[in-house]
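stage 2 :: seqdesign
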């Protein structure tokens, strides 16, 4: 039976997250707090006793490190999943996160789609993310996919049937580091059990 429950998790903290800048290198590692966050989300997910868990990670180092902590806690391997990686940010490399909210006037591609100038569109990222999920969801068990904030904010409107532009403008699906989104499949599509839940980090600086 195909998977009917899906967990989407943002990676743990890195130095570029602290600096609040876009376009960190693919090998940006977790910082010391990020390593603790990864252990915390791993313990949280292990306590759920999920049936036949399968852990997937974006190819980027910060996602792979977070996924490895989860996989170790669950006693399963990590599978690298191409397609769920973060945006290619084009000419916005090094710009502050705040520009995502304040510079929407720069976000219109020539074809009318929204996204990073010289980089990927929101729709493009959502499409590749959904395509990557197709094979994952065909298998039995419970998939847990470790990805990135921008990629998750792009794909969730498509999975949940909400407006992409409105979701970005309101930060509706913004995920903190190691925040967990849990979806279940119903006859009419995916339904959110929780979105961007960071309760496992309570009390952590």
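stage 2 :: out
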């Amino acid at each position: 039976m195909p998977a009917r429950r899906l967990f989407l998790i943002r990676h743990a903290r890195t130095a570029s997250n602290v600096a609040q800048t876009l376009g960190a290198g693919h090998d940006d590692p977790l910082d010391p707090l990020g390593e603790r966050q990864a252990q915390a989300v791993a313990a949280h997910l292990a306590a759920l006793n999920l049936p036949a868990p399968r852990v997937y990670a974006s190819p980027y180092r910060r996602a792979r490190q977070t996924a490895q902590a989860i996989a170790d806690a669950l006693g399963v391997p990590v599978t690298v999943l191409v397609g769920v990686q973060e945006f290619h940010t084009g000419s916005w490399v090094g710009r502050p996160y705040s520009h995502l909210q304040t510079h929407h006037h720069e976000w219109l591609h020539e074809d009318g789609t929204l996204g990073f100038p010289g980089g990927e569109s929101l729709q493009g990222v959502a499409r590749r993310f959904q395509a990557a999920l197709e094979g994952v969801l065909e298998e039995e068990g419970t998939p847990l996919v470790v990805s990135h904030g921008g990629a998750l904010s792009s794909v969730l409107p498509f999975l949940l049937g909400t407006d992409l532009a409105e979701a970005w403008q309101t930060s509706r699906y913004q995920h903190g580091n190691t925040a967990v989104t849990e979806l279940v499949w119903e006859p009419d599509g995916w339904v959110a059990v929780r979105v961007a839940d960071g309760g496992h980090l309570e009390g952590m600086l």
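stage 3 :: structure notes
- The longest strand covers residues 189-197.
- The chain has one domain: 5-201.
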